[in-house]
Amino acid sequence: MSETFFMLLAGAVLIVGLAALGAFAFLNLQRQREHESAELAELKRLQAETMGRLSMLAGGQAELQRAVHERLDSVTHHLGQSMTATRQHTADSLARLNERLAVIDGAQKNITDLASQVTSLQSVLSNKQQRGAFGQARMEIIIQDSLPKDCYEFQFSLSNRSRPDCAIFLPDQRPLIIDSKFPLEAVSALRQAKTDEERRVAAARLRSDVGRHVSDIAEKYLIPGETQDLALMFVPSESVYAELHESFDDLVQKAFRSRVVIVSPSLLMLAVHVIQSIRRDARMREAADQIHAEVGHLMDDLKRLHERVLRLQQHFGQANEDIRQIVISAEKVEKRGTRIREVEFDDTVEGTSNVIPAPIPRQLTAGE
Fold first, then answer.
1. Tens digits of per-residue pLDDT, 7-32?
2. What is the distance between the alpha carbons of residues 103 and 111, in angstroms, rounded to a whole number?
3. pLDDT tens per residue, range 289-314
4. Do both 140 and 192 map to the same domain?
5. Which residues does 236 contact at the CB level (< 8 Å), separation at least 6?
6. Of 2, 76, 288, 339, which one is least surrounded by beta carbons within 10 A?
7. Same domain for 142 and 225?
């Protein structure tokens, strides 16, 4: 019986344990479900927040996409404008480049032509006669471009039968002589000299040729009372003129003492301008003399006019006096007529009438 009790007790304990275990398991399950429910609610909340954030992210993405599109449109527009401006600038640059290339082509053509002209000029200068004609032509161009035709004459004949290259007539009618036959052979030899000895010989030849030419100009073209006291020796090259002044100043001083002035093209133009000023001053002096003479005549006319006005004033004075005397006489006549009109006549008996004479008026003076 005890065994049965123990078995029953064990069974009861087992049942109670199983019941307690079931209750504990139920409680754990309930707690697990509640925890799962809480986690599910939290998960739903998180999901809702995630969805909200996703919707916000979608809106931000749309806004970002719109902003990106607007920015791309703006960049595309600016890029198009920049490309258009760049294309226009490039086209303009290419057009200017083509123009400059055309100018360069023209300059190259001019250089080619100039090279051919320099070659022909060298061939001209190698011949003495052609070189003299070149200097003469250059001098004539300067004179013709600056002075009127009646102011100069080429190949003018002097009294000693010499014929200078040019004669410029100044206001005193004495011509200024210009010679253009400068000896360039010695200058060419000096420039072509390579050794000291060749340069010394060429320099001596230059001094001799230029000195002889200066003497010829002074002897032939400086005639007292007929020409000016100075003559000009024209050098058709500025470089030759500069070389003369730099290395052969003694020649320049010798020419000046001989009353021959060496001039380059620029100095000849300056001398021509001085001559223009001299002629203009002479014309102004002539005009001033003419004006002075005309003013003298005008003063004489004014004097005669004053005398005639004075005589006319005297006539007017006499006429005024005559008119005043006439007025006085008219007043006298008017007074006498008034007194005559005031005389009265009365009738008497038997048709006879006696005239009652009016009082005899007093004698008027000559001044009334």
1. 666 666 677 666 666 666 667 777 77
2. 12
3. 777 777 777 788 888 888 888 888 88
4. yes
5. 134, 135, 138, 139, 180, 182, 265
6. 2
7. yes
